[in-house]
Write a structure and sequence with these properties.
The protein is α/β, with parallel strands linked by helices and 254 residues long. It has seven helices and seven strands. 44% of the residues lie in helices and 15% in strands.
C-alpha cells in the first residue's frame, strides 16, 4: 500500500468509531501519524490499540468535546506539540439528535444538534486553521451530509440544517484560507453502514431493504468507501480542489 502520508500528522474528531475510525485507519495505513479526538476516552484508547495491533505507527488519543472551545483548542495544540505539527484535520464528530416533525421538536433538542455538528466544526476549524497558519500549509476535510444538500421527508430538520451549515461554512472558510496555503473541503455521505443508518426498531434486513429501494446503487455505503473520499481530499492528488462538498451517496442526490 502507498505510504503517501508518510511524515504527515492527521487529527480526526469523532475518530473512535464508524466513519471517523475508518478515516483514521486509512490514513494510518498510508503512513500518517494519527490523533483520535473525541469525548469517549475509553473508546478512543481501544481504537488506538486496534490500529497499533494492525502494524500502524504513531496513534495518539485526546479526550475533548468539540463544543467546548478551550477543550478543542487544547486538543489541537497538544497534537501539534506531541506529533510535530498538524498537516491534516478531519472534522467528523457529529450527532443525529432528535428525530421527528419540526413542529414538534423541542428548541433545546434543535440547539443541541447545531451545537455539536455546526458549532463544533466551527470551533475545531478555528483552532486547526491557527495551527496550520503557523506552519504555512494544511488540509481540512469536514463531514457534512447529503441530507443537508436538498430537502427530504425524513423528520431530521435539525440534522439537515446543521449539515447544510457545515457545507456552506466549508466553502467560506476555504476561500478565506487558501491564500494561507490551507485547503478546506467537505464530504457529504449518504446512507452508510453505521448505527446512524438504522431507524428505531429496524434490524439489518429491514434497513437494507429500505435503503435498496431509495438509493440508486441499491445498498448502504461501507465506511471504507466514505473514508476513501475523505483521504483523497486530504491528499496531494486533490491539490486543485478548494471549497468543494463531495457528495458520496450512491446516486441519491442525483
Amino acid at each position: 500500500m502507498s505510504k503517501e502520508f508518510s511524515g504527515k500528522v492527521a487529527l480526526i474528531t469523532g475518530g473512535g468509531s464508524n466513519i471517523g475510525l475508518a478515516i483514521a485507519t486509512l490514513l494510518a495505513e498510508r503512513g500518517a501519524s494519527v490523533a483520535l479526538v473525541g469525548r469517549n476516552k475509553e473508546q478512543l484508547d481501544q481504537a488506538a490499540v486496534n490500529l497499533r495491533d494492525r502494524g500502524n505507527g504513531i496513534v495518539l488519543t485526546v479526550a475533548a468535546d468539540v463544543t467546548d472551545e478551550s477543550e478543542i483548542e487544547r486538543a489541537v495544540d497538544r497534537v501539534a506539540a506531541e506529533l510535530g505539527g498538524l498537516d491534516i484535520a478531519v472534522n467528523n464528530a457529529g450527532i443525529v439528535g432528535a428525530i421527528g416533525p419540526l413542529v414538534d421538536m423541542k428548541p433545546d433538542d434543535f440547539r443541541k444538534v447545531l451545537e455539536t455538528n455546526t458549532v463544533g466544526t466551527f470551533l475545531s476549524m478555528q483552532s486547526e486553521i491557527r495551527a496550520m497558519k503557523r506552519a504555512g500549509s494544511g488540509v481540512i476535510v469536514n463531514t457534512a451530509s447529503n441530507i443537508g444538500v436538498h430537502g427530504r421527508r425524513l423528520n431530521m430538520a435539525a440534522y439537515a440544517a446543521s449539515k447544510a451549515a457545515v457545507s456552506v461554512m466549508t466553502r467560506n472558510a476555504a476561500l478565506e484560507s487558501i491564500n494561507a496555503g490551507i485547503r478546506i473541503n467537505a464530504v457529504s455521505p449518504g446512507a452508510t453502514d453505521t448505527p446512524l443508518s438504522f431507524r428505531p426498531g429496524e434490524d439489518a434486513a429491514a434497513r437494507d431493504a429500505r435503503v435498496a429501494s431509495a438509493v440508486p446503487i441499491g445498498r448502504v455505503a461501507k465506511t471504507s468507501e466514505i473514508a476513501e473520499a475523505v483521504v483523497w481530499l486530504a491528499s496531494d492528488r486533490s491539490s486543485y480542489v478548494v471549497g468543494h462538498d463531495l457528495v458520496v451517496d450512491g446516486g441519491t442526490t442525483a
